[in-house]
Here is the input.
Amino acid sequence: MLAAAAARHGGDLSLDPWELSADRYLSDGVTITDEERERLVGEYDAALLGALGDPRVPDGRHARDILLGLRFRADLYINFRPCRLLAPELSPLRTPDPSTHIVFFRENTEGLYAGVGGSLRAGTPDEVATEQSVNTYRGVERIVRAAFRYARDHGRSRVTMVDKANVLRYEGGLWRRVFAEVGDEYPEIERETMYVDAMAMDLVRRPERYDVVVTSNLFGDILSDLGAQVTGGLGLAPSGNLHPGKWALFEPVHGSAPDIAGRGIANPLAAVACAALTLEHLGMAGAAEEVGECIEASIAQGVTTPDQGGSSSTREVGEWMIGRLAE
Ligand code: IPM
Ligand code: MN
Here is the structure.
């Protein structure tokens, strides 16, 4: 889809496949080398990553090294996760609102993902395990600003910041202060704060109410799965790991689906939606739009995999969409 859409728009796109699979890790113990990471970030404009996760790597090290390694190495501080309901029947909710379109701005380089922590007396009944949430003024400021800027540039009217400031007072205090400060620069955008527990409830109760949402790394990880589910499931949800003006990494919000491995029925739409985000990042907005239209058409016409009620295989969905592009 990436190549076909770019070609139609005269885009000059060269694609290199990279092998970073769990098979490779299991055979030589390497997830991704420092040198590969440097090359990927230094020599390309973007990467489109397949789904990660393999039951043969139960501690998730492979996925963590590659995904978190690249996010941190390239300082991709924005995890952009749009959740748009393309058809009401895709939602598990009883009365979904067709206008539902939430855009999550998940902080992507700090918080509980910073890797600060440790353990003492591991493996004994006196074991201690700690994990610290790291929040810097600069880190909070740039993600909050990215959310407001997006809202302004895309005609969105409200930014919701999600935290747990009633308990996590230090990070909550910082986030709220920065949110108010940056928000003041965007007087035309309404702003509100929500506690994460209430937000989890409200995203099920009335997701259509939410517009742009900005939050910390872990809350964003969790809430973006919830947002994806109420708008059609992980099979549809793309994400972009971004740092404006720099290299970007696109990946479906979902991981792999080992329970259906080898059957040829994995839903390709989230990955294809990532291809659209990639094209947009590369300055090929027209091509991106066409890919988006193909996704909508595949849903409207029921050319989908079984998880979405269709009877097509992964390959058939892909080929159908490529065929449609050519029409
Ligand atoms: C995601 C994933 C990753 C995360 C995992 C695989 C490390 O769940 O991209 O949302 O927690 O960020
Ligand atoms: Mn996740």
About this structure: The first strand starts at residue 46 and ends at 48. Strands lie at 46-48, 78-84, 101-107, 111-120, 128-134, 158-163, 190-195, 212-215, 238-242, 248-252.
